[in-house]
């Protein structure tokens, strides 16, 4: 049941919480010791029994891939294996300077720890607003809210850099530039992993349409009752994520939840739904979630690459990987159709890929 179909008193609680414009940090700052019921999740969605220990998410070293053919071949094979079996992996020696990554995390922290009256000026649920802050984009759709606030910046052609708060403006702009470069490098390796020319995925505009979500997870008084982020698959072609040392990110692998242990300086790569579609299922979009914690704050920053949403640009299985013996598994779609389906449901629901399966 979505929140708008819930009991009227629950809807009133959601409206009252949203009207504060202070997010979950406001609740944490108020010193609450009991979790408001709008954040309490069903026991079926909470992490019990414990996650499987022993399995480790692939960590792939990109050192030398630009000028050493042997290293590049190894990295392509590792990325092919990780993208087809895990759907998520970590990159080290990726070329993005550590100070850029740390600067972005600290810039995010400075924004989220501004006085609530300052942040409230940017609090919005307007999907067309390039720079904004909110608590749970799906607050009125999901069955239970997540313990997380989010600052968003959409790198669209209409973005005015002066709209980004000065406490994090320089950091976001530098981060966006470096992560775009890394995404293009990853797309080259993914193209080769599909048996295509290195430029193929870039040539179909997968680097265009990107935005940042800087998440802030305050200490939670009852983390056993809620989640930082509910299970979901990413609505993107590719997601690049950095996180601090606190951890809490988990990925679903072979029916088990596996911890994505933080690696200093690493960038986490998620295969999104849209890349699963155009790779005809060769690469897998994967469920992941974030646990709540009594410690904190936890900081993470995700950059999503979503392609071209305007006009009649269709995305479907890449024709060069199809043949008489390999039929398309998905139909061609407009991205606007995909995002309409995604936006109609809250996190924690089942994958929407079935809507586009042939």
From TrEMBL:
Keywords: Iron, Metal-binding, Oxidoreductase. PANTHER family: OS06G0255100 PROTEIN, OXIDOREDUCTASE, 2OG-FE II OXYGENASE FAMILY PROTEIN. Residues 208-307 form the Fe2OG dioxygenase domain. InterPro entries: DIOX_N (IPR026992), IPNS-like_FE2OG_OXY (IPR044861), IPNS-like_sf (IPR027443), Oxoglu/Fe-dep_dioxygenase_dom (IPR005123). This is Fe2OG dioxygenase domain-containing protein. Belongs to the iron/ascorbate-dependent oxidoreductase family. Coiled coil: none annotated. GO terms for molecular function: dioxygenase activity; metal ion binding. It comes from the Eukaryota. It comes from Zingiber officinale. The keyword Metal-binding applies. The keyword Repeat does not apply.
């Amino acid at each position: 049941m979505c929140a708008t179909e819930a009991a009227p008193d629950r809807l009133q609680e959601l409206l009252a919480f949203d009207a504060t414009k202070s997010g979950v940090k406001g609740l944490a700052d108020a010193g609450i010791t009991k979790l408001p019921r709008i954040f309490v999740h069903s026991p079926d969605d909470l992490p019990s029994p414990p996650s499987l220990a022993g399995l480790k998410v692939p960590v792939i070293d990109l050192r030398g891939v630009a000028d050493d053919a042997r290293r590049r071949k190894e990295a392509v094979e590792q990325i092919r294996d990780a993208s087809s079996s895990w759907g998520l992996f970590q990159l080290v020696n990726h070329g993005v300077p550590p100070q850029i990554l740390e600067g972005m995390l600290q810039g995010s922290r400075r924004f989220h720890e501004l006085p609530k009256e300052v942040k409230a000026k940017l609090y919005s649920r307007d999907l067309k607003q390039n720079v904004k802050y909110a608590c749970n984009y799906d607050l009125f759709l999901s069955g239970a809210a997540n313990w997380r606030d989010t600052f968003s910046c959409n790198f669209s052609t209409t973005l005015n850099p002066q709209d980004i708060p000065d406490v994090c403006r320089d950091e976001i702009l530098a981060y966006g530039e470096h992560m775009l470069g890394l995404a293009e490098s990853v797309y080259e390796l993914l193209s080769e992993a599909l048996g295509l020319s290195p430029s193929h995925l870039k040539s179909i505009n997968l680097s265009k349409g990107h935005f940042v979500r800087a998440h802030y997870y305050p200490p939670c008084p009852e983390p056993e009752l809620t989640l930082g982020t509910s299970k979901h698959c990413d609505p993107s072609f590719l997601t690049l994520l950095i996180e601090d040392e606190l951890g809490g990110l988990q990925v679903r692998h072979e029916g088990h939840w596996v911890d994505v242990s933080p690696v200093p300086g690493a960038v986490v790569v998620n295969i999104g739904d849209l890349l699963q579609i155009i790779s005809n299922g060769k690469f897998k979009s994967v469920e992941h979630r974030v646990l709540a914690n009594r410690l904190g704050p936890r900081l993470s920053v995700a950059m999503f690459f979503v392609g071209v949403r305007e006009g009649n640009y269709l995305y479907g299985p890449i024709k060069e990987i199809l043949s008489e013996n390999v039929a398309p598994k998905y139909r061609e779609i407009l991205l606007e159709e995909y995002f309409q389906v995604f936006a109609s449901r809250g996190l924690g629901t089942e994958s929407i890929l079935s809507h586009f399966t042939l």
